[in-house]
């Protein structure tokens, strides 16, 4: 992790509440160059964190700094800050070129036309640059927003779900672009609710649940934390009791219970269980009709992450 002196983005004990609703609670993190993924479910607090960094919101408590400046109070921060907000944010009646160049002029770019051409090239919209955005797909409109964020060559990029609406080929291209932007020395913070999406581009992942930063680390460590954790699994089918006995004998489950003709097992490691079930089912003549997790709600995930977070890059 970058130290605070070298960080371009800092949240220090930041909370934000709206009336009685706590959107972000006591978050402290500092970021430097490279791509960082902000991972969380819808409503976890990702957009609130990005809005605080963009200066659209003031923290209820704590300190926010971007490039050493308070983004809510100091307008100079926007010279080095590019933002892709969630939502539409484009004008259907205007062309992509018109919209990107308008932002370039607002930012005081020395050569707005040249900067616009370069931004549109980087996001793959050169051929469509002079078409009205009303005829664009959602993915293409997302790229217009990304070109607007890039046109003034910012040092920090805040991107809220930038891959929404893109087809697989567009996602692959945009992931490569974001990786390249991070490799150029920019600080890129990308929010998403999809772990597989984040780990393709990010060197570091922050996990937010219910407004709290509960884990941070390398993508592989976060995947292990989220996926390979204790699970309770319900098995239904023919001869499932024999399968459960084999799992217990192999040390893959800690407990077995019969329930309404099915078997419920408690496994310390979900991935090991999933890998073993097919082979042991074949060996024991078990025909499985259903394998499903039990109790997989947000609160159980949150409780597990809070217990485990201290051991993952913190």
Describe this protein's structure.
The chain is of the alpha/beta class and 314 residues long. 35% of the residues lie in helices and 28% in strands. The chain folds into two domains: 9-226, Rossmann fold (3-Layer(aba) Sandwich), CATH 3.40.50; 228-294, 2-Layer Sandwich (Alpha-Beta Plaits). It contains ten helices and 13 strands. A six-stranded mixed β-sheet has the order 5-6-7-3-8-9, sandwiched between helices. Strands 11-12-10-13 form a four-stranded antiparallel β-sheet, covered by helices on one side. The longest helix has 16 residues, at 168-183. It is elongated. This is ABC transporter ATP-binding protein. Keywords: ATP-binding, Nucleotide-binding, Transport. One of its GO terms (molecular function) is ATP binding. InterPro entries: AAA+_ATPase, ABC_transporter-like_ATP-bd, ABC_transporter-like_CS, P-loop_NTPase.
Which helices and strands appear, and what pairs or packs with what?
Blueprint: E1 9-18, E2 21-31, E3 34-39, H1 46-54, E4 61-66, E5 81-84, H2 96-106, H3 112-122, H4 138-150, E6 156-160, H5 168-183, E7 187-192, H6 195-199, E8 204-209, E9 212-217, H7 219-227, E10 231-238, H8 240-249, E11 255-259, E12 262-267, H9 270-283, E13 287-294, H10 298-308
Parallel strand pairs: 3-7, 3-8, 5-6, 6-7
Antiparallel strand pairs: 1-2, 1-4, 8-9, 10-12, 10-13, 11-12
Domain ABC transporter: 9-235
GO molecular function: ATP binding
Organism: Kineococcus gynurae
